[in-house]
Amino acid sequence: MELVEVATFSFLDDASVLESILHAKKIPYFLSNENMSVFSPAISRSLMVKEEDKKQAVEIIKEAGFENYLTE
Hints:
Oligomer: single chain
Mean pLDDT: 86
Low-confidence stretches: none
Order of helices and strands: EHEEH
CATH architecture: 2-Layer Sandwich
Number of strands: 3
Radius of gyration: 11 Å
């Protein structure tokens, strides 16, 4: 299973909103550096999904109004 990056977040709150949506839609995801905000809030977080879920995840991100976080 290969994970691909679909978005990069500077703010954990925005990433949390998308995590909730992806979870509700049963799309597996991984958020890198999620706990690093304890040490430095400026660290970016990458939202990763399986390659086969990428298209749907990108659509969800756009629908949620977070298209400025998309990596492509």
